[in-house]
């Protein structure tokens, strides 16, 4: 969905543009979730830390994708996830209050955000089903098909964690 120049101008006045370095942490578990992040350039990662200290990689955000702790952002409660940069990145930071104000003022933005939320929900549902019904090789192939260049941008450790396999298992896979 394309936004007209007037709408884009209004959005740009409502966001904070940040250039961040690789490993910059944008959110820690327990922190207030102030922003959702739009990746202009770079790669961000969302991680959930379980009670045993194990990291579970929940989401990658590449160029033209949003990332946040959904529950924390929309319900304005402390977050459960950490978000950090895997590459030097340029991001747009949009607060919940600014988002709500923009949506109230501009119908096109309300539609835009609703469509993006729907797209995210569908991707999450597909990922869950893939995790439940596919073996490690199938998950690897599906990730590579959906994000062809991502394989080269991730460390083997991060990719293995996202797929739920050991690094040894991952080493046997090559993109099809």
> What's the architecture of the domain at 5-105, going by CATH?
Sandwich
Poorly predicted parts? none
| Helix content range | 40-55%
State the separation between the terminal residues, measured CA to CA.
31 Å
> What is the typical, i.e. mean, pLDDT?
92
Mass-distribution shape? globular
CATH superfamily of the domain at 5-105, by name, is Jelly Rolls
**Percentage of residues in strands:** 15-25%
Radius of gyration, in Å, reads: 17 Å
The largest beta-sheet arranges its strands as 1-8-3-6
Please count the beta strands (DSSP E, at least 2 residues each): 8
Q: What is the CATH class designation of the domain at 5-105? A: Mainly Beta
Number of helices: 8
Verbal overview:
Helices cover 45% and strands 24% of the residues. The relative contact order is 0.16. Strands 1-8-3-6 form a four-stranded antiparallel beta sheet. The chain has helices spanning 5-14, 70-75, 96-105, 107-133, 136-146, 150-153, 156-163, 167-170, and strands at 16-20, 25-27, 35-41, 44-49, 55-61, 66-67, 81-85, 89-95. Helix 3 crosses helix 4. The protein is an alpha+beta fold. It is globular. The longest helix has 27 residues, at 107-133. Strand 4 and strand 5 (55-61) form a beta hairpin. The chain has a domain at 5-105: Jelly Rolls (Sandwich).
Write the layout of secondary structure elements.
Layout: H1 5-14, E1 16-20, E2 25-27, E3 35-41, E4 44-49, E5 55-61, E6 66-67, H2 70-75, E7 81-85, E8 89-95, H3 96-105, H4 107-133, H5 136-146, H6 150-153, H7 156-163, H8 167-170
Antiparallel strand pairs: 1-8, 2-7, 3-6, 3-8, 4-5, 4-7
Helix pairs in contact: 3-4
């Amino acid at each position: 969905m394309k936004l007209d120049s007037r709408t884009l101008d209004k959005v740009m006045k409502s966001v904070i543009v940040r250039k961040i370095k690789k490993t910059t942490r944008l959110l820690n578990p327990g922190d207030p979730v102030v922003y959702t992040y739009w990746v202009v350039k770079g790669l961000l990662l969302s991680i959930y830390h379980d009670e045993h200290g194990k990291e579970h990689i929940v989401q990658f955000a590449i160029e033209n994708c949003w990332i946040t702790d959904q529950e924390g952002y929309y319900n304005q409660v402390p977050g459960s996830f950490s978000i950090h940069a895997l590459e030097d990145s340029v991001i747009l930071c949009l607060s919940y209050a600014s988002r709500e104000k923009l949506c109230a003022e501009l119908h096109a933005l309300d539609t835009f955000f609703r469509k993006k939320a729907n797209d995210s929900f569908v991707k999450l549902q597909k990922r869950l089903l893939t995790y439940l019904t596919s073996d490690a090789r199938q998950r690897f192939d599906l990730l590579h098909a959906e994000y062809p260049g991502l394989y080269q941008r991730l460390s083997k450790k991060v990719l293995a964690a996202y797929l739920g396999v050991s690094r040894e298992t991952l080493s046997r896979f090559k993109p099809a």
